[in-house]
Amino acid sequence: MRHVTLTGEAPELIERLIAGRSPAEMLFKRDDGRGWKRAEQLRPMRDGCKRAGIGPAVSFHVLRHTHASILAMRAVPMAVIARQLGHSDTRMTERHYAHLAPNYVADTIRARFPRLTETQAPTVVPIERARRNRRQAR
């Protein structure tokens, strides 16, 4: 079992879909009342895309990628996207979506790197002067 977070519009849609149904009924049903099987969405999606003028036709898998891409482009953390997609960790998510995140690498480094204040910053000495000082100290 996996939990998927839905937008605020989802409860309203689901309430309309389940109105008058028993809890045992499928949420999305075919016209004949049966539940959808894995491959039975391909033809209706293709036909719907054709009617809508969408070409090439998309699949539910493409919609899943679109969902994740939109989240990444809106700077949603990779860990959140990974969880939404059901990935066990962020590696796959980062591989496919991190390039879409605005300033993903820079933002991640800045958020996690310790702040260096004047009191914490190491003294920077040019290499030649450091060598000369070491030689003089001998």
Give a nutshell description of this structure:
With about 140 residues, the protein is mainly α.
What features would you describe in this structure?
There is one protein chain. The chain is mainly α and 138 residues long. The chain has one domain (10-114). The chain is built from seven helices and no strands. Helix 3 (60-73) runs antiparallel to helix 4 (78-85) and helix 4 (78-85) crosses helix 5.
What are the salient characteristics of this protein?
138 residues; mainly alpha; 0% strand; elongated
- The strand count comes to 0
The major sheet is characterized as: none
What gap, in angstroms, lies between the N and C termini? Answer: 69 Å
Order of helices and strands: HHHHHHH
Shape: elongated
Structural class computed from helices and strand pairing = mainly alpha
Count of folded domains: 1
Please bin the fraction of helical residues: 40-55%
Q: Which segments are poorly predicted (pLDDT under 50) over 5 or more consecutive residues?
A: none
Please work out how many helical segments DSSP would assign: 7
What Rg do the Cα atoms give?
27 Å
Strand content: under 5%
